[in-house]
Amino acid sequence: MDDSTKRILQRLIRRIPSQMLQTMLGKWAHLSREDLHSLDFTQPKWVLTEQLLALCEENGLRVKHITELEMIYIIENPNQGMWHGFQLLDAEEDAPSIELTQFKKQFKANLTELISNVSIKIKKHTDEAIWIRVAWGDNFTKPNHLKPTYVVHHLQTPYVFVTGLTSKYKPLLNQALVLATRYGSMKDAHLSGRNLTAIRDLLMRQYQQVFPTKNPKPLQEKNPVPRNPNIEKEHAENTENRLQMACEAFGDGTLPQLQKAVYKLETKFRDNSNKTLTDREEPFRGVVEFASTNLLESLRHCVSSGMASTPVTPLLSSITQKGRNYFVITDKGV
Amino acid sequence: MSLLKPFSRLTGLNTANILLVENEEQFQQKLADTVVLQEKTVNVNVLARSLPLPMENEESRPRIDLVVFIIHLTSELSFQSAETSLKYLDPGYFQGKVCFLVTSARNVSVPPERLVSVRTLAASLHCPLLCAEDQTTEGVTTAAHRLLAILKVAAGLVPMATSLYLSTLTRCTVPSDIDQQNFE
C-alpha cells in the first residue's frame, strides 16, 4: 500500500470512535474472521492502527476498500458535518419511474463525462435512500479521498441532501444529478443543519404535525387526567390555546433538530427615534440569527409559555411550513 | 375594572383559598401541589398568570384569602407583570392578604436593583416579602410551609390572630427605613 492509502486509513481509524470500531470492521467484511479475532480492541488506538495497517497490507486491500469502510461509518452516523438540502424542479415525464440501476448508470456516466478523474461509489441503504460518495480530482491529480462529498437522495422524491461539497464542484454535481434523475433543474432549498435525519424529516414533512381543527378537544370517552380538585387553573383555556397554536406551527412530539435559523434583512430602517438612519433611501442590511441545540423545540416552548405572542408570526412558522432555515426579507415580503 | 374583592363571598367551613399569580406559570404548579399535600383538609389553590382573572370563572370562584405574587428575579417581565396585576386588587387585600414571593434572589446574574425595587414595592404596600428557592424539593416545601402559615391566619383559622395584626409583624422594610429608626 502506498503512503497516501496508508494515510487515508490512519485518518479514518482515528475518526471512528473506539466503541464502534469493532462493529464497523465486522460490517466491512474484508477482513477474515480469524484476522478480526486476532485484533485486541482494548489496546490504545495507535496500536490498533498499526495492526490494521499490517492486516490490510497482507490482504492486499486498496483505496476502494478503505473508502467502503468510510462509507459504512458515515451511513451509520450521518449526523456530522454540515448537510444542505436541495430541491429538484421541473420533473420530466419519466422522472417518477426512475429506478436504481438506471440512476446509477446515468449518474456515473454523466459525472465521469464532466470531469474525468472522479471516484464514485453508490450504495442503497435499507430505508430506500441512495448514498453516493464522490472524491474529486482534476485532470492532473488523482481523486482526493480525504475530502469526499456525500449525497443522499430518495428515489421518486425531488430532494437531495449534500455534505462536503465545495463551490468549485457544485455545478458539476448539480448537472450530473439533474440529468440522472430526469428533472429540469436543481435549486437550493435553503435548509442546512448538522443532523441529516432532522433536515430530511423537515423537508419531507416526516415529523408529527398538528393540523388546525375546529374542535380540538378529544372525545369524552376516555377518563380525563385526574386533576387535583383542590387546584384550579384560571387561565387554563388560554394555556391550551397557546399550546395548540404552538403545536400547529411547529409540530408535536419530538421535533427535528435544527441548529440555526438565519434571517437576512434588506428592509429600510424604521425607527422614529433615530432620524439619521431612518431617512436613508437604501435598505438597512442586517442579519438576525437564532441558534440553539434544538431550535424548533425552543421556539415551540417560547410560544406555548407565552414568551412569544400568538398567533405565531409567519416569520417563525415558515421554518416548518416551508422547510427552510435561511430567509431573505425584503420590504415586499419574505 | 373588575377588581378582586376580599369579602364579596361567604367563607366556607374549614377552607382557605390561596391565589398564586405568576407570569411564567411554572413554580406555581409545584407550589400548589406541595401546599395541597401538606394540608389535606383545608385549601383550594387557584393558579393564574396575571390579574384580572377571567370573567367566566366569576361564579364558581371561591373567596380568595391570600394573594401571592411570584416574581422571578431573573426576568424583568415577571416583575412588570406583577406590578400591572396589582391594579386589579381591591384595596381591602392590602391589609395582610397579599404576599410577595421572590425566587433566584441569590443568583449572581440578577441585577441587584431588581430586588431593591421589589422590596420598595412590598414596603410601600405593607406586604411581607418571602424569598424562595424553586429548584429543589426542600425549597418548594419550605416555601409552601411559610405560605400555609400566612394563609391560615388570613383565612381566620388561627385564634387570636388576624392578617392585619400579622402583617404589622411581617411586613417588608427597605434598609433606609431601618437606618433612620436606628439613628433617631
From TrEMBL, chain A:
Top-level taxon in the UniProt lineage: Eukaryota
Gene Ontology CC annotations of this record: chromosome, centromeric region; nucleoplasm
A GO biological-process term: CENP-A containing chromatin assembly
Localisation per UniProt entry: Chromosome, Centromere; Nucleus
Entry keyword set: Centromere, Chromosome, Nucleus
Similarity comment text for this entry: Belongs to the CENP-N/CHL4 family.
Protein name: Centromere protein N
Record organism: Oncorhynchus kisutch (Coho salmon)
Upper classification of the organism: Eukaryota, Metazoa, Chordata, Craniata, Vertebrata
